[in-house]
Design goal:
It contains three helices and no strands. It is mainly α and 81 residues long. The protein is elongated and about 45 Å long.
Length: 81
């Protein structure tokens, strides 16, 4: 049951982050929401990192890279303000 609840929260925060980035153009809030979504592991949270399939690790690493890009974009666009 915990895994199902984690998936719902993960998807919810991902949608919130995408909404904030696309509609509101608030990249810092988008980075925060997408970063928080990583706390709710959509896969089996009790499985060790090395035991996960490569595709699960790739999804999480790409997700983290997107969070870093959003954070950098937010800092870069707000640099002149």
């Amino acid at each position: 049951m915990k895994t199902h609840f984690n998936k719902i929260l993960y998807i919810g925060f991902v949608f919130l982050g995408c909404f904030q980035a696309i509609v509101n153009k608030d990249y810092m809030q988008a980075a925060a929401s997408l970063g928080i979504s990583l706390a709710f592991d959509p896969f089996n949270p009790e499985q060790k990192w090395n035991d996960r399939p490569i595709w699960q690790r790739a999804i999480l690493i790409v997700h983290l890279a997107i969070v870093a890009a959003m954070f950098g974009l937010g800092i870069g666009l707000n640099d002149g303000k």
